[in-house]
Design brief:
The protein is an alpha/beta fold and 221 residues long. It has 2 domains: 67 residues, no CATH class; 144 residues, 3-Layer(aba) Sandwich (Rossmann fold). Helices cover 53% and strands 9% of the residues. Strands 1-6-5-4-2-3 form a 6-stranded mixed beta sheet, with helices on both faces.
Length: 221
């Protein structure tokens, strides 16, 4: 029902903003959020704590598909924020994601894909650097928050390590984008019922989405 009228709502929301020239960063963000809220309207009926995360993802991507595509396990947002308040590290699958997370909260953000030892081990084992990055991270930070927006192989390996009892993340953000291994990786994560998780179902996702989710969690602290 939502998508039957969403195109019309988007048109109306944008029509009334045609010709507006806004240069103040805060005002630009507020205007964008107002448009998103006008499109969503009263369609949302899920937990209130999830809505700012959904809106932040839509804001970052301009893609209203995420209104329906994002899945939150029970109390995932609450549990994630509790972990963040305890300075739980955030492990990312790419340097781009690490660089996009807000730095004003003094989080420990870790991504080792560019480390020489990671590169060498990945080459020797003929595996992706993302897999080796996750394996090393789990050894050091088994209860961290894991944000994966680009590499489905990293998410698959993380799920395997969770099943083996070697990791118990405070939250897994599983939103890799693409065509190979993506659906399978997200399905594996969805089946881990005891792990707090946020998933972008389908092939959509990406570093931008993962970054928006982490920042939305931070902004709510």
């Amino acid at each position: 029902m939502f998508f039957r009228c969403v195109s019309k709502k988007i048109f109306i929301a944008l029509f009334y903003n045609v010709g507006m020239k806004i240069f103040d960063p805060y005002e630009i963000e507020q205007a964008s959020m107002k448009i998103i809220q006008n499109v969503i309207g009263k369609e949302y009926s899920g937990p209130e704590e999830n809505l700012p995360v959904i809106k932040r993802v839509i804001h970052a991507t301009a893609d209203f598909d995420f209104f329906n595509n994002l899945y939150f396990s029970d109390n995932a947002v609450k549990k994630a924020r509790e972990a963040l308040r305890k300075n739980t590290p955030v492990i990312t699958d790419t340097l781009m994601l690490a660089s996009g997370i807000s730095k004003k909260y003094n989080l420990k953000i870790i991504c080792r894909v560019a480390d020489e030892n990671i590169k060498l081990e990945a080459k020797e084992k003929n595996l992706t650097r993302s897999i080796i990055n996750i394996e090393h991270a789990v050894k050091d930070f088994p209860s961290a928050i894991y944000a994966i927006g680009n590499a489905p192989t990293a998410l698959i390996r993380l799920c395997e390590l969770i099943k083996e009892g070697k990791a118990a993340p405070a939250l897994v953000i599983g939103v890799p984008v693409g065509f190979v291994n993506v659906i399978e990786a997200k399905k594996m994560l969805a089946e881990l019922e005891n792990i707090p998780r946020i998933i972008a179902h389908g092939r959509k996702g990406g570093t931008t989405v993962a970054c928006a989710i982490v920042n939305a969690l931070l902004y709510g602290l």
